[in-house]
Amino acid sequence: MKRLGRHAIVDVSEVDEPLRHAEVTSLLTDMASACGATLLRIETHEFGEGHGLTAIAILAESHISLHEWPEHRFVAFDIFVCGSASPEPAIDLIRSRFPDSRVRSGIIDRPGQ
Amino acid sequence: MKRLGRHAIVDVSEVDEPLRHAEVTSLLTDMASACGATLLRIETHEFGEGHGLTAIAILAESHISLHEWPEHRFVAFDIFVCGSASPEPAIDLIRSRFPDSRVRSGIIDRPGQ
User: Fold this and answer.
1) How many domains does chain B fold into?
2) Which tens digit of pLDDT belongs to each residue from A5-30?
3) What interface predicted TM-score (ipTM) does this complex get?
4) Side-chain half-sphere of A39: how many Cα atoms within 13 Å?
5) Of the candidates A54, A60, A108, which has its C-beta nearest B63's C-beta?
6) Domain of residue B46, CATH code
7) Using CB atoms and an 8 Å cut-off, which of residues 23-82 of chain B contact chain A?
8) What is the chain A residue with the closest CA to B64?
9) For the segment A26-47, what is each residue's pLDDT rounded down to a tens digit?
């Protein structure tokens, strides 16, 4: 069947500092906008000092998720968008936010071929 | 760096009927349990009659997401778990729930190698 969405998987390692809640909310909001997506709301869960956080932006076009492992200096992003939205500009924002980190990204079709 | 989590991407096509909200909540709860994960909460968004729904289970071990396109008879699942949790039993639950559909799955490491 035809492609309905594209899903970017972005792994950021060698992250300098733990993320702050307010910053994550701002970053996900900017990422949704950059994708051309409509942000419905952002849900977060903080695992306590030094234990990272989860943030999920629910979009009209699917979702963006962020999971942080500060003890491993690692952050995992998923950018799953359908319709006319595009994940590439959000990947660029991640690269800008983590200029000194290692950013690996790949994009898959949903459904896969 | 070492693997912190595993992420199953599961595309279900040729789905018979639109999903119901209560059923989705129950399915995600069962999937989290099957993975050996701790469910923190489930967030849903319904796009209106015939337009599908999004449901995201926030786990202590990352997340499970579901996006439905009833007009395309398609449902996309992601099962992203870290630690000792395992996505395979949740994939089995999807196959059981959609016995007459086409289920394609793959698992990637996070971070990727």
Assistant:
1) 1
2) 999 999 999 999 999 999 999 999 99
3) 0.96
4) 19
5) A54
6) 3.60.90.10
7) 40-41, 43, 45, 47, 54, 56, 58, 60, 62-63, 65, 67, 69, 72, 74, 76, 78, 80, 82
8) A65
9) 999 999 999 999 999 999 999 9
